[in-house]
Design brief:
The chain has about 325 residues and is α/β, with parallel strands linked by helices. The protein has 14 helices and seven strands. Bound molecules: zinc ion. The site of zinc ion has 5 residues, from loops.
């Protein structure tokens, strides 16, 4: 883990904040609920009486199984009465449940002593300065994906499909990728000119997978190449560990491949990385403005054909000005 002590402490403080926020909300709601439905207090008293009387019964020689079965039944009845009272006063039945950001670890960051997926992703966000990822992703997700920005009467370079028909296929492939991710993984190559919604689509995928607790690292290709360079020229441990995440995260997104400053060194590192991820069965999404032929010219056919034969291609076409206007709203 490439977190410094300070970063770790800052992260744990965030979890503490979340926990105190949750308990403030619960105690506020408890007061609100009990003043709206005072008979709940009486119900609570009955619950504690039942627990006490079942213990007393056991101590006075009653069969344990019978005593606990009886009290369990009574407690169930009280629970139902409680839910009905809350509902008829207009409160949802989980009103006093803490509003966890992550129900899996109950906002503690740990499950059975192991770091929770939410902790791992938070660490990745810190290390890769992805602090803005959540903001972008709150706007760019499948719910906001609007097929209507792709025109029915827009065609490109002799393509048989309209931009709209093409986008429908692209969207289906992207949602399938998300649905099958845990089982099948896989890799995507998003092709299309600037402004056709490639980044938007890869953000939609990232958002859906992050919500499932899958670790995602997002880089523009220039940023990624900078990390490769730093790793080679500044041999410090932090950068080396950082590098491990790039090989190991569940999904690596490389945006805008082909816009980086290229030299034979960075190119070799890129394909070493992509190859290594294939061997480790880790998924990668690459988006690029380059056409397949241009990719081959830029990065050598031998490498591109080997790597990209493992990628499913999604192509987006469309009237970029119109799409940009709608997407950047
Ligand atoms: Zn968690």
């Amino acid at each position: 883990m490439a977190l410094s002590n300070e970063q770790y402490d800052a992260l744990m403080r965030e979890y503490n904040h979340k926990q105190s926020r949750n308990s403030r909300i619960v105690s506020y709601r408890t007061k609100e609920l009990y003043s709206a439905v005072p008979s709940l207090t009486q119900l609570d008293e009955e619950v504690s009486k039942i627990s006490i009387s079942s213990i007393t019964a056991i101590f006075s020689g009653k069969d344990i199984a019978t005593a606990s079965a009886e009290s369990k039944k009574k407690l169930e009845e009280l629970k139902m009465r409680r839910i009905n009272l809350m509902k008829s006063a207009g409160f949802p039945e989980d009103y006093l449940e803490p509003p966890y950001d992550c129900p899996d670890c109950k906002d503690t960051g740990y499950i059975n002593g192991e770091r929770c997926h939410c902790f791992k992703q938070a660490a990745i966000n810190i290390v890769y300065k992805q602090s803005n990822i959540n903001n972008i992703l709150s706007k760019e997700n499948f719910d906001a994906f609007d097929l209507d920005v792709y025109d029915n009467d827009y065609f490109e370079d002799g393509s048989e499909l309209s931009a709209r028909a093409n986008a429908e296929i692209a969207l289906e492939k992207a949602t399938n990728f998300v649905q099958n991710f845990r089982e099948k993984g896989g890799n995507l190559l998003l092709l299309g000119r600037t402004g056709c919604g490639k980044t938007f689509m890869s953000n939609c995928i990232a958002k859906a997978l992050l919500d499932q607790g899958i670790s995602v690292i997002y880089f523009t290709s220039s940023e990624l190449f900078r990390v490769f360079e730093e790793q080679t020229f500044k041999k410090n441990a932090n950068v080396a560990e950082l590098h491990d995440h790039i090989f190991d995260c569940d999904l690596l997104i490389i945006d805008d491949l082909g816009t980086e400053f290229q030299n034979s060194f960075t190119t070799a590192r890129l394909f070493q990385c992509l190859n290594e991820r294939l061997l480790r069965n880790k998924s990668t999404i690459i988006s690029t403005n380059l056409k397949l032929e241009e990719l081959r010219d830029t990065y050598s056919e031998r490498i591109t054909s080997r790597v990209f034969s493992n990628y499913e291609v999604i192509k987006l076409i469309g009237n970029d000005i119109r799409i940009k206007k709608v997407i950047s709203k």
